UDP-glucuronate decarboxylase (Zostera marina), 349 residues
Amino acid sequence: MDALELPNGKSNGHVSIKTPPPSPSPFRNSKFFTANLRILVTGGAGFIGSHLVDRLMENEKNEVIVVDNYFTGSKNNLMKWIGHPRFELIRHDVTEPLLIEVDQIYHLACPASPIFYKYNPVKTIKTNVIGTLNMLGLAKRVGARILLTSTSEVYGDPIQHPQTEEYWGNVNPIGVRSCYDEGKRVAETLMFDYHRQHGIEIRIARIFNTYGPRMNIDDGRVVSNFIAQAIRGESLTVQEPGTQTRSFCYVSDQVDGLIKLMEGENTGPINIGNPDEFTMLELAENVKELINPDIQVKKVGNTPDDPSQRKPDITLAKKVLGWSPKVTLRDGLPLMEEDFRKRLGVLKN
Ligand SMILES: NC(=O)c1ccc[n+]([C@@H]2O[C@H](COP(=O)([O-])OP(=O)(O)OC[C@H]3O[C@@H](n4cnc5c(N)ncnc54)[C@H](O)[C@@H]3O)[C@@H](O)[C@H]2O)c1
């Protein structure tokens, strides 16, 4: 990727520009302010967001505010923090402006599963575009650093494999997935425009398929589908041809990567994902072997624009964040099985 020429004549490459961002709230210097950081997590009641909140709350110096409209998230995911003096939960839709004082914004709000984002595509693109504009406006007003959880979907059906951050992608602009893919691409553009024009401190993570406890059951994402099917004793439905690949990152690794990115000096975009690549048939065989060897694997029709290959190149994350995933698929799947069994009420024989 070419280094970008900035209005002040400096180049940003992948590093934050030198223009000073707006000063953080003077409240930071108040004698009543005991926490080091007040952190906003949009979409914090969702799958990745709630794990991120758990990790941020472990640090006694953090105050965490979650904003969520509960479209795909749930208060249940945050139950253990409700009532905690360093925690606040606000029902709010990010497509509406938000006026609060914060130092950091993790902007995750957006449905991630195709079933949900295709259910209301107009709302999905509004969440990506207007929601990101609102959060950038907030970051600008209070001088907060903002991290966007973008996605590997910005690469579309990639011609380059594995995908590096320099790859510009191969995305259908008018397809049924475009509200999500193109929405995130515009969100990335907005982040960089606010960074160049207003000196906002930005961070962009391009998240690759992530899995773990608290994923919505039957949400159309392949790992949650397979695990729920295996626990219920149903056939595993592999979308044709079954040779399409994905790589799966366990949620604790993902959260480590996001926090390292927020705390580091690099704007990104940076791929955060696990480069171990599996075909859908291999994933099904792993789930079958680990969870229920008695079930069948059955092929079903595919959805339009399903990418045939997906694997992150994480050289940049290793180099600038010192991050790489630790949890293998065979270690992560049983942890997710335990959570799904509790929620489905099906005990292991
Ligand atoms: N899980 C993955 O594999 C994956 C992959 C790539 C990118 N991401 C990105 O990571 C983020 C979190 O994904 P997730 O898997 O936790 O999804 P999720 O659906 O579990 O969480 C999204 C959260 O955002 C909330 N939300 C949606 N629209 C909102 C709105 N308009 N206002 C306020 N809240 C809203 C939902 O209620 C939910 O709690 C998303 O931005 C997603 O695009 C996830």
The first strand starts at residue 37 and ends at 42. Residues 26-210+250-272 form a domain with the Rossmann fold fold (CATH 3.40.50.720). Residues 35 and 61 are 5 Å apart (CA to CA).
